[in-house]
Amino acid sequence: MTILEESRWASVAAGLIGASGVALAAAASHAGGEQLLRPASTICLAHAPALVALSLAGDRIRLGGLVALGMTLGTLLFAGDLVARHFLGSGLFPMTAPTGGLTLIASWLVLAVAAALRRR
Fold this sequence. Notes:
The chain is mainly α and 120 residues long. The protein has one domain. The protein is built from 4 helices and no strands. It has helices at 8-30, 37-57, 64-88, 96-116.
């Protein structure tokens, strides 16, 4: 069994990303981070439940582990870059947020295709 077949890690990621989303929402409200922290919070809070669902689905969704990995990495890149811009004054590396966003879009598309395919 590989890491992509093990669904428990996706629940751990969901918990951490969900908690980060709530913390970022609080920071945006109380620390003046509406422009960067609010979107980072939204991305986290949108993808944490998706990761929970993928974890619960286990191997019933073809490529579910790959989708969860993509969503986790995409969320970390996208939200992490916005958080770095707010607190550090610069992003993580050039094109981090767009790379994270494209990774998230690709993950959702892989999920759609995988869900449409029949299990053998």
